[in-house]
Design brief:
By secondary structure, the chain is α+β, with helices and mostly antiparallel strands. The chain contains nine helices and 22 strands. Strands 1, 4, 11, 12 and 13 form a five-stranded mixed beta sheet that branches. It has a five-stranded mixed beta sheet with strand order 5-14-10-6-9.
Length: 491
């Protein structure tokens, strides 16, 4: 008998109870026999479901071990519906009529990859947001609190260093060509494809805007002026003037970083998370020769800078230009489309068996202050060269005096003075520690107790009666010498 032909357990329980009430033995037996079949079929169905679950779990583990991203039930359901819609005879109608939207977990995983894998986006202040954003940001690089008694009133307001930043996310559109054969690979591979397209659309589109965007329906780039007094014309922010740089010596880099070490209000701030962006060709022709040094073992060290920073190559910059700045002082935001849908598109058809869809993402960004990023003109940047400077050695010191002399807690008579060479002391101790400190660090010290040498800072053992301590000091010039003598009497 098939599963659907047998009544449910609730129905059979009612029949068994009725047969008992009616004293109907035949009816009881028939209902009980059907109950046994019901239980057997339920157990078999549960076993098969469990085996399917174990098989899926095993498959998932194997795929995960092979690097295939595992989908949530919501993600799997979405891609199954998307695949079916894309296979339809009328994909426009099928995709438009889908009752499922791109799960947030897919977008979040793309954002996480952007924050870890992309060289530039992994360094800046990158945030996943919604469609409209109002943020409160600190405009000052440094704030100083005021000291006072525990119960004093607040003596300084710090809120002047904060302001609200209103921003709308701008649309990034990318085409998603999907061939029919790809749909047969299953939800995992369709998901992998969509994620990679989203990653490329966001990373490439955002990088161009973050570096050089003019703010007119684009992010405000690092190469643009920002601030309360900046005049925005037609939605576009003015470009920064480039600072001419011919070398990357410590003095040059230090001068550049000193500009970033002050916020637009003139307050000092610690400069960290410094990046330098360069065109790939300029990196190999200009920056690499200027930052490559040969080590004593004959090997080379690349990207050697006098201050810690990461050099990042980006095609967004034109030849001859570079950007140096504080990475975390650039705020970038990204979000999904309001409805999270993939739309059918007629814009391009690459192959007969390939259908093209439109996938949208939303992003924006801006520098948090004008001093955080500098535009450099590196067209004249010169290779690093070894510089040999002849330095006259300093004259060795002839200072052979001590700045301090102590023998445990014993009182020296007279009180120690650098120019006094003879002292006396009394003790009842068996031992005391002798410590002599030279006035000049280059001087050498030798300590003798009853003509036996001991280490400076170690204990001397006294004999009853008179003991002689000599501290011989030889100046750094090797010729000037002084001897301090202490007569220690042990009673």
């Amino acid at each position: 008998m098939k599963n659907n032909d047998i009544r449910s357990r609730e129905e059979l329980r009612a029949l068994i109870q009725k047969a008992v009430r009616d004293n109907d033995s035949e009816g009881f037996q028939a209902a009980f026999d059907e109950m046994l079949q019901r239980v057997g079929l339920d157990v078999q169905q549960e076993y098969e479901a469990r085996m399917d679950e174990l098989q899926q779990e095993l498959d998932a583990r194997i795929l995960a071990a092979r690097g295939v991203h595992q989908l949530t039930s919501e993600e799997r359901g979405y891609y199954q519906k998307l695949g079916e819609a894309m296979k339809a005879a009328d994909p426009r109608q099928a995709v438009t009529g889908m009752d499922a939207v791109l799960p947030k977990t897919v977008i979040n995983s793309v954002f996480e990859e952007l924050q870890t894998a992309h060289p530039l986006l992994s360094r800046i202040n990158f945030r996943a947001t919604g469609g409209a954003v109002e943020l409160i940001v600190n405009t000052n690089g440094y704030e100083e609190a005021a000291w006072g008694d525990l119960c004093d009133d607040i003596v300084k307001e710090l809120t002047t260093g904060f302001k609200k930043v209103n921003t709308m996310l701008l649309k990034l559109s990318a085409f998603l060509p999907v061939c029919k054969a790809m749909l047969d690979l299953g939800p995992e591979w369709l998901d992998n494809y969509v994620r990679q397209v989203l990653y490329e659309a966001l990373s490439n589109g955002m990088e161009a805007g973050i570096v050089t965007g003019d703010g007119n329906k684009k992010p405000v780039g690092m190469t643009r002026q920002v601030g309360d007094n900046v005049v925005v014309t037609g939605g576009a922010y003015p470009e920064k003037a480039a600072v001419k740089v011919t070398d990357l010596n410590p003095s040059t880099v230090g001068n550049l970083i000193s500009i970033m070490a002050a916020d637009p209000n003139g307050k000092a701030r610690r400069v960290r998370d410094v990046i330098m962006l360069v065109n790939p060709q300029d990196y190999y022709q200009k920056v690499m020769p200027a930052t490559t040094m040969q080590a004593p073992d004959g090997t080379y060290r690349n990207d050697v800078m006098p201050y810690p920073m990461d050099i990042i190559q980006t095609a967004s910059l034109p030849r001859g230009k570079a950007v140096m700045g504080i990475a975390y002082r650039y705020l970038a935001m990204a979000g999904t489309s309001p409805d999270g849908r993939i739309e059918y598109s007629d814009h391009y058809h690459f192959l007969e068996d390939e259908r093209v869809y439109l996938i949208k993402a939303y992003a924006n960004g801006m520098p948090l202050d004008n001093n955080a990023f500098l535009v450099l003109d590196i067209s004249g940047l010169q290779p690093a060269v070894w510089k040999v400077t002849q330095v006259t050695a300093a004259t060795a010191s002839n200072d052979a005096t001590l700045s301090a002399l102590s023998i445990g807690s014993l009182a020296l008579t007279p009180t120690f003075a650098a120019a006094t060479l003879a002292y006396t002391a009394t003790t009842t101790n068996a031992t005391n520690t002798i410590t002599a400190v030279p006035a000049d660090a280059g001087a050498e010290i030798e300590i003798l107790v009853n003509n036996a040498k001991i280490d400076n800072g170690s204990s001397a053992t006294w004999q009853t009666g008179s003991n002689t301590v000599k501290v011989n000091v030889t100046a750094a010039d090797g010729t000037t010498k002084k001897t301090y003598t202490v007569t220690v009497t042990k009673s």
